[in-house]
Amino acid sequence: MNLQKFAGKTNVFPVLDNQFKIGESKEKATTIADMETFSPTFSNGVETWTPMDMEGWQRALMTAKAITITLNGKRNIGDAGNDYAAGKAFKNGHDAEGYFEWIMPDGTSISWTNAVIDVKNNGGGDSTNVGALEIDVISNGKPTVTPAL
Hints:
The chain is mainly beta. Helices cover 5% and strands 46% of the residues. It has one helix at residues 80-86, and strands spanning 19-23, 30-31, 35-49, 59-74, 97-103, 109-122, 132-138, 144-146. Strands 1, 2, 3, 4, 5, 6, 7 and 8 form an 8-stranded antiparallel sheet that branches. Strand 5 and strand 6 form a beta hairpin. The model has no long low-confidence stretch (mean pLDDT 94).
């Protein structure tokens, strides 16, 4: 990937500037062809309490984090990233895990060595549709976050 294209980038951006890589390892990871949409969902665990010394005002502390990244697109047989993701459809346990990296438009990288790859649709749709590939990539532990250069 050419991080130079991100250097000094500010302002709004098209969603297509997000990039995703998937594979057995960081070294083997490739982009996933023919993905059309993505949606990150951040889940936060917040514990709240109302101590007497706060005169009825609530206190809060964020105690947990999780991210699910939903990718929807077309099933592209022969593309390494697309095949790798689709190949998780019948896997369980640690076999359903893989390396996943999200490269944001500013160049920041978020990656997991063992993200859970949850295949939701592998080739389905109406008879006149192009076969779909829909996956949820679920965080599995704390990610490695590499800030933009």
